[in-house]
Design a protein that fits this description.
With 59 residues, the chain is mainly α. It has one domain. 86% of the residues lie in helices and 0% in strands. It contains 3 helices and no strands. It is elongated.
Length: 59
């Protein structure tokens, strides 16, 4: 169980750091999709996209 003080602190953090919060949510959504819903074709496409993005960031 979470205390009221911890809940307030979490709300304050989320309000002050919206970009980080959005990034955490995107990451969580991607992991959930991969673990529970993606089929082989989806995974192949995601791997391809990830490799392209990694190459862009390496340049």
């Amino acid at each position: 169980m979470v205390t009221q003080a911890q809940m307030r602190a979490t709300r304050r953090y989320k309000k002050r750091h919206p970009e980080k919060n959005r990034l955490y949510q995107y990451r969580s959504n991607a992991k959930t999709f991969i673990k529970h819903y993606a089929d082989k074709d989806d995974l192949d496409k995601l791997i391809s996209l990830a490799q392209e993005q990694k190459a862009k960031l390496s340049d």
